Amino acid sequence: MSRPSDHYDSPAPAPASDDVTQPRLGLIGWLRWFWRQLTNMRTALFLLLLLAIAAVPGSLVPQRSSDPNGVTQYFADNPDLAPVLDKIQAFDVYSSAWFSAIYLLLFISLIGCVIPRTKHHFQALRAQPPRTPARLVRLAGFTERTAPAGTDAAAAVDSARSLLKKSGYRVALFDSAPRGGSREFSASAERGYLRETGNLVFHFALVGILITVGFGSGFGFSGQRVLVEGQTFVNTLLAYDSFSPGRFFTDSSLEPYKLTLDDFSVTYETQNLKAYGQAIDYSAAVSVTRRGEALQTGVVKVNAPMRTGGTDVYLLGNGYAPSITVKDPNGVVVFTDAVPFLPQDANLTSLGVIKVPDGLSEQLGMIGFFYPTQAASSTGAFYSSYPDLEYPMLTLNIYSGDLGLNAGVPTSVYSLNTDKMTRLTGGKTGVKSLELKPGETQQLPNGLGSVTFNDAHPGAAANDFSGSVLRFASFDIHHDPTQVWVLSFAVLALLGLLTSLFVPRRRVWVKAIEHDDGTLTLEYAGLARGEDPALEAAVTDIADRHGRLLVSSTSAVPATEQN
Amino acid sequence: MNLNELSILSLYSAMAVYALAFISFAFDLAKRSAAVKTADEAAGLAALSAVPVGVGAVNGMQTAGSTGNLDSGKPAGTIVNRISARIANDAATPYGRSKSLRIGVSLTVLAWAIHLMADVLRGFAAGRVPWANMYEFAMTGTLLIVTVFLIVLTRADLRFLGTFVTGMVLVLLGIAALRFYVEVAPLPPALQSAWLVIHVFVASLGTGFFALGFALSVVQLLQFRREALVATAGRVRLRFLATLPSAATLENLAYRVHIIGFILWTFTLMAGSIWAEKAWGRYWGWDTKEVWTFIIWTIYAGYIHARATRGWRGSRSAWLAIVGFSAVMFNFGVVNVFFKGLHAYSGL
Ligand code: HEM
């Protein structure tokens, strides 16, 4: 039998007297025993269910792969539990030793199960349908008919053969020795080999997916880069804000194309008052120059990445990047840049950090809040009431002291460590935080110098702020050479699944029994191989069609007898 | 009254009609129980022990199908070869279609039409497909459950599941209307994709088949217990079960409904990956929603294997189907609302 021994369709197991239970088995014996255990249906089922259960914790606990900030937060919230969970790889469930062990065992079992079946299936494809059973009565859809008078047994079976062949059956004819005075001719037919083929294709395709995902993805990479409108990025390792290469990645595989964010525009809902201000479109207009080629323009949108230079460019996030200039007391510029601020809510209240390490008497840090449309609550706190630039306002809290940039510890551009700094404005200092509208300049406390919130569109009308602050877009840039393969295997799996679940595999027999009195009995029966709900209907249908065929062929010959 | 208000009105009307359909179906079950009781009393104890013949022992397609066919003298065409015929024929106590059953089905069709109207109006009100947040998922998903049920009815007589289907749809719609309701809003950029139409629709359709499969598996388990009780002359509480198909027939039906659901779910998984690649730049990232879609797929793959594993056919595989559907409901009701992840589209 091709199927695992505990497939319901396999012969019943032999009584447990085989060598498995004998004490001295030897290494080979044990290995064989283990292999047989691993490749039976029950093990496959057990491992499948185990895999389902093992996947659950990864949805309950944040994962480093998909939610690194969540993991940091979890450690902060559960300082006692988190390290214990970390020990059992609960934050990396899907790459953990135990999860991998389960799916690797499952796939070894799968391969061990599918290879012998494939071998057997190839043999079956070449083999003849088996001999017709002696008795058809107990089989599915058993139908008995009396042939029209004058029908020849051999001819009847022969016409059954062509009928079955036309319906896609493989047919073998048998002619059994006379039994108790009657002679039997029969056709044994089988169809639906595609069912098993589909099943094998499905299981092999799963192996294909696992292998391409496992090994192939090592050749790719993914990186992130934030670009403010007008900025250009060159596709080289150093230009990325963060970069994660696959195991086999070499940076020579990066094509150094140039990508400029020309414009980032957002469309807001203004018709539907219930969803007023909801973003309905983000468009990043970019231009790309590949080596030796002319400049090309394109648009990157959410759900519509741009494929260029062997990479896929995705639009992930966006926000405002207020442009800020800091001057020393003599009016010398010590800092000027557009600083991306991270959005904090749906109306884009945004938080950003400005670090001025050099040029002033002390290092300077600023924590800024940007409100595209500033409003004040009854307590006086500012918030943003609309995500577009209607009434932009920047507030800055100033800190002086040690920025901690020289400690050798990498620091995030989005956070300010104020441990070694003195707060100069806001909070308990009694000094008001700086508030700036685009184009305005204010003096820094303690005569440190001045800070300017640059207007990106200085020529605009007095109360038109729409172009006053630049936007930024964050791009994910990926290269994954396996995608096509994974997709092909997935499609193959789906096709295999469809064939294996819907193509019926069945055997059908037609038997013609000649009786002493010259009459001819026709018997029809079928046998399902796997699920086959339509088997009986199919047998009846064959009997009916065969009957009509015989009637038409005998009525062509002048009838000798009437009944 | 604008389109959305009209949609809400239709939805509440549909719920009212579903409630009436539920009552009719429940009446039918009560009548079935009464009929079984009368039949039992009339036949006396002797009949009781004769009932399981040809029902309890059957397991597997060939035998289940051929029991009725040994009489070879039957003219062609009357042979019991259609599953619908088998459903009617292998009940322990034969039972026709009561008036309340027919009323229940008619009311379900009516409720379905109003429900469809509510869904379509919501779509027009929003100017897009009506499945972009929890309220709309629930509305369209339940519509598809009823659609699948009604379509299957034309091919196999599963009217006895009416109580379950209308009851479940009623509960889900009630939760959706009271807890998940959100105003019409345009699609955020992340959802503006043809894959929203395909992926979510196929997932909901798959859920419709899983729901029906779940119901069949539950009835299969109850029927199995009844058959065991009858075999040992125990007392059966849910009498109406005697008018339903045998556990073996129910199992075969459940399996067929489940494999359609499984194929749709496989497609959902693939379409979701393609969409994820377009939207987030990776086709698979073990996001919570992806994890649960995978878990559900694996459980149903387990169910299909169980059906092919000796010792696991019958009740054990039915339990797997029940676990699978619980995971589907958990994915919809709990993961969407309470779990954190990229799929933050519940709209709540
Ligand atoms: C990654 C793990 C596996 C998955 C996801 C899986 C999934 C499936 C699915 C969906 C089917 C039904 C569709 C079809 O017939 O093609 C199936 C059938 C089958 N699988 Fe697997 N399988 C896995 C591993 C295995 C292993 C390890 C074995 C061997 C022990 C196995 C043996 C079979 C057999 C014999 C069938 C035919 C069942 C029947 O006759 O109805 N599978 N599998």
Automatic annotation (TrEMBL), chain A:
<feature type="transmembrane region" description="Helical">
    <location>
        <begin position="44"/>
        <end position="61"/>
    </location>
</feature>
<keyword id="KW-0812">Transmembrane</keyword>
<keyword id="KW-1133">Transmembrane helix</keyword>
<keyword id="KW-0201">Cytochrome c-type biogenesis</keyword>
<protein>
    <submittedName>
        <fullName>Cytochrome c biogenesis protein ResB</fullName>
    </submittedName>
</protein>
<feature type="transmembrane region" description="Helical">
    <location>
        <begin position="484"/>
        <end position="503"/>
    </location>
</feature>
<dbReference type="GO" id="GO:0016020">
    <property type="term" value="C:membrane"/>
</dbReference>
<feature type="transmembrane region" description="Helical">
    <location>
        <begin position="200"/>
        <end position="221"/>
    </location>
</feature>
<dbReference type="InterPro" id="IPR007816">
    <property type="entry name" value="ResB-like_domain"/>
</dbReference>
<dbReference type="GO" id="GO:0017004">
    <property type="term" value="P:cytochrome complex assembly"/>
</dbReference>
<dbReference type="InterPro" id="IPR023494">
    <property type="entry name" value="Cyt_c_bgen_Ccs1/CcsB/ResB"/>
</dbReference>
<dbReference type="Pfam" id="PF05140">
    <property type="entry name" value="ResB"/>
</dbReference>
<keyword id="KW-0472">Membrane</keyword>
<feature type="transmembrane region" description="Helical">
    <location>
        <begin position="97"/>
        <end position="116"/>
    </location>
</feature>
<feature type="domain" description="ResB-like">
    <location>
        <begin position="41"/>
        <end position="538"/>
    </location>
</feature>
